[in-house]
Amino acid sequence: METKYIRNVAVVAHIDHGKTTFSNALIEHVYGFKKTKGSFQLDSMELERERGITIKSHPISLSYKYKKKEYTINLIDTPGHIDFSNEVLRGLIAAEGAILLVDVSKGVQPQTLFNAKLAVENNLKIIPILNKSDLVSCKGLSKGYSILEDVTGTKYADLLRVSSKKKLGLDSVLEKIIEDVPAPFSVHKDSRFRALIFDSTYDEHVGLTFYIKVYSGTLNKNDRLVLVNKDKPILIVKSLGFFNITKTQRTPSFISEGGIGFITIRIKKDVWD
Q1: CA distances, 102 to each of 49, 144, 159, 188 (Å)
Q2: Alpha carbons 210 and 198: distance in angstroms, whole number
Q3: pLDDT tens-digit series, residues 153-211
Q4: Of 180, 209, 239, which closes a domain?
Q5: In terms of domains, do 49 and 126 share one?
Q6: What is the reported pTM?
Q7: What is the three-class DSSP state of 112?
């Protein structure tokens, strides 16, 4: 897919303001899925499900048609708890935009402001959204939001209002992402493959998996990779793919510029010699 049809967006908010529920609502809205009661599609770690919070940044790719064009929106659900701010940063540096959720029943909180400033520092386009808008709004929220107005550049009256629970306002969010968030761009003049590893997981059956954002070039299966602090090929790509949710989507043969995906790798035995 051409980079002009790709949008990479991180979802940030104060803890318990509904990031994961919001992300799941977008998935269900786009693909028509119904979430099983008590389950989460993005919180996959046992500790996350047990505590009901997001600990690691979880990407997911959404396909959305807008003005007769097919777009890929890579959505990165990030933690809200202050203890996992490094995970939030990893999600932000892999994106060009940030959705800043504010729970209407709780208003602007310390982590809301922290995440907004973090997004600004990383030159991201911020889309502030009032979540849980089916609830009775706090009278003081408008006044409290003025703290963020200078940071986000969005006035309270212009905020998008959504209800993740009732699936209200979600098309407006998706269209806003496509219209306002810039497409990925490369600062490199050549086509040499370059990518950012913004997270990783390990499974005893699958092995080591890297979450990557591709800045330039194309990555194929069986390619050899060099880490920036090494002087020889040390990683061999065993498999690669995107964070798709539907089984009907085909496994890609490559990941190209602007894309967010995963690779499983094999490490050469002599790397530690």
Answers
A1: 22, 11, 10, 36
A2: 8
A3: 888 888 899 998 888 999 999 999 999 999 998 666 677 888 988 888 888 888 889 99
A4: 180
A5: yes
A6: 0.82
A7: helix
